[in-house]
Model the fold of this input.
Amino acid sequence: MEQEKKIALAACSGMSPHGLIARVASTDTVDKLDNTISICMGATSADKDGFRQLIKKYPIITISGCDSDCASKILEQKGVKTIKNINVMEELNKEGLKPTDVSRLDEAGEKCVQHIIKKILKEIDSTRS
Done:
């Protein structure tokens, strides 16, 4: 697939169960689809070489752990507007799903990840229409 058609995913880096779900769902999506890439929010926030250009090269979907939406705010500070934000906490609350650990996935966490992956794929598809 051509580079111009890639979508970048910028996941929450927060230390909460919802942040873990955001990171795993983003990583798993990038592993499944060759038309997606991950944005490292730590390197972006630190203004690491190469990331200044990367965040402006592709459309970005943020996957926020909570209402703070730090990933979008960091990108806005860098002059980048995202095309969509997925709020993990909100999406999981709608389905009655609840992750329980900040660093390990259990059965409940895996269910949460699968739900968020479906949401990410839906958003990617909607940007292609």
Summary: Residues 3-128 form a domain with the Rossmann fold fold (CATH 3.40.50). The longest helix spans residues 107-128. The mean pLDDT is 94.
